[in-house]
Amino acid sequence: MAERRWAVRRWCAGWALWVACGSAAWAIPAFDEVHADFKPSDTLVLSREGEVLQRLRTDATVRRGQWVPLADVSPALRTALVLSEDKRFFEHSGVDWRAASAAAWGNLWNQRTRGASTITMQLAGLLDGDWRQGPGGRTVAQKLGQTVAAQVLDRRWRKDQILEAYLNLVPFRSELVGIDALSRTLFGKAAHGLDDREAAVAAALVRAPNARPALVAQRACGVLRDMQQRPGSTQPAAARVDCDALDLFTTAALQRRAFDASEGVAPHFARYLLRQRSKDAAVPERLPSTLRAPLQRFAVQSLQQQLRELRGRNVEDGAVLVLDNATGAVLAWVGSSGQLSQAREVDGVLALRQPGSTLKPFLYAQAIEQRRLTAASLVDDSPAHIATPGGLYIPQNYDRQFKGWVSVRTALAASLNVPAVRTLVMVSPDAFHRQLRAVGLPLRESGDYFGYSLALGSPEVPLLHLTNAFRTLANGGRASPVAGTLANGGRVSAVALADAKPHFTPAIDPRAAFIVGDILSDGNARARTFGTDSVLATRFWTAVKTGTSKDMRDNWAVGWSERYTVGVWVGNASGAAMHDVSGTSGAAPIWAAVMGFLHAREPSRAPKAPLGLARAAVRFGPAAPQPGSPGDHPPLEAAREEWFVQGTQQALFAIDSVANNQYVSSAGVKKDPKNSAQSGVTSVAGLAARITAPAPGTIIALDPDIPPTRQRLQLTATGEGLWWRMDGKPLGRGARVAWLPWPGRHVVQITDAGGQVLDEIRIEVRGAGAVAPAPRGTAH
To answer: How confident is the model over 30-46, as pLDDT tens digits?
Structure first.
């Protein structure tokens, strides 16, 4: 009676266990759910056309490739896997009871058997952790649950779905999970290309993922024999498997790592996008972008081709960026020359480099906006020695030659350095620094930190922000961040696509932006430096500026068309100097090629002039006579029509000393010499009277050890008939006066004879002031 009760209890316990395991097994997800939940360890960056541009690993804990449909798995692998793991896979209903009986019989007699775990049972363990084998093997409950789950799977899923999911979820070796990661890592190919030998190795790894290479090869040899002996095999019946050769092949394969962490034509842009994700956001499997796939590939090819042509000149790096003018969307982003570089991971689009002369357009735009200069104003390209707190600043031109008096149009288009520095003296470094910040350049130091070298591009800026600053010129002086970014170097909050509507803010006067664009599109104006057949000349409308930094460490070409802005940098990521590589020989050919690709079937028209501009005919006076030269002198530049901000136009631009005793006012009206003191005439016609020294915002520190009378400050200005005022009180007359500094903040003005203020600056004096000498016998 007691034995009967014990049997009943065991039966009840077994039945309860079976019911519990069965209820859990019925929770197996559907095939579509498993497929949807599959997460590769890589993210695919897509072009706007939907083409994969870059594959980038984003999960360091495991290596999974893409989900591979069963139809894309080689028949050899499918055969090898079934022969190795589950020969009656297509016959049983999830559990191979014949194999289970054989395994139980073998265990009874202590015989080694293959085991009875089917592919379906193994998949059940992969789908539900409750059925997975632990270090001590599976418990009775786990075995029962796995058995029930396998039968549920077989009833709910098709055989091809079971095999497909198994191939994509099974761990193979180390961090490799799924057939895509295995085939690409060990064999360097997709799963559909595996041959019999590779399939046998893959099947052997399923049985023992981390076994020694010799054991894997031994098992692979057995699988390969089974494959050749199966009915329908294409191998001759007498063919023998060379296990020694398979051993060498397996050892080599298990050491290979052909599945690179990143692959494609846009690695730097892919990393840039992924860095901008919110920290809480899930890593996407597919990430759409604004890049154009054909343009991206062409930009990569153009950069690499140009650097190969520069071989031998110590240049190996470069970067290319293409922006859509209307939206700010990134259309191409090439951060490196790739295999040509020894620093291919450095992103040249984001790296800080000196921009050289590419900052000059913003300087002249500011001077034109402030009506200090016009496009026809004459500036002096001659040796200059500019006093600074650190000593004399002596700017030089790129070719070490000077052109004499030239118009602003020529000075900017021909990229002359000395006129740019003279212009910065008028504008002041602090004011120009504010202008550069307004167009989005992330300058960390102040204008005083850079001084007058700011005109020649001494700060370091990224190609991304510099190109977008030129896009501001393309948009008539309106600035907006690159799509998806925050202004002034802020972090990107989201990836904006091509149809995003940017928020524009005024940064440059639209009239000044138009005039600068007109100058940079003028091939005749740049001919004095670049020649008439320059690579910068395009068959469609473009405006472009080149730049070369000190010692030829960087060179640039940045410009825009009607729809696109293109920026190119060429140099060395290490900072090493190039050998005789300028903006026109380094970056410009790439810029021209990319622009040509963009406009192969798309026109580019010149922009329309904004309101407030006037176009007027201008002529230029003769050059200064040289000793022993004939009496007739040609004009400084040929007569032409020129753009002016309304109210600044005039007909004649000449040097006063050779203007045939006819003085020209800033409005272009001829004045009688006797009345010239009231005309506000400058030493160069068309150049408004301005205070040239000291610079606005100057702080003067008095030295108590030097007699005050020895510390007089020299105030200088351009113009004639000038009157000086200090804090509203008369100070002196002429182009130069000396002033005894007194502590405090002061307002310095120049006026004409009628008292009209022509220019004004503010300065500060710090330190002990002058003390009047005391009478004799008086104690101090």
So the answer is: 999 999 999 999 999 99
